[in-house]
Write the structure tokens for this entry.
Amino acid sequence: YETKSFSTCFGGRTAASLIESIPALVAALKELGEASGADIVEDCLEEIAALAAQHNGAAKSSGAGGGDVCLAFFGSEEDASAFDAAIAKTGYEVLEVELGGDGVRSEHNV
């Protein structure tokens, strides 16, 4: 599996290359889960990923798996909007997020 391509693509390549890298990453995580007996890639992720693919995108779990949050990536606002409309009909909760915030930091009061 080419899991390194996801981090490489996320770090600066095109949206298309990032979207193309996600299915291999999810497949590797699924294989790891099956080999270890851990539920890393749940059925709901596969459902969301299939819906994202129908709208020219891809989806992956955001953390260690097991039912937390799924991230969906799209190359255009139109595709993302079409996915939003479709996912709204499924009952899944959609969280609006943005990249570029301050992130985690340590603050010391002296």
User: Anything to note?
Assistant: Strands lie at 57-61, 70-74. The chain has a mean pLDDT of 81. The helical segments are 4-10, 15-36, 43-54, 77-88.
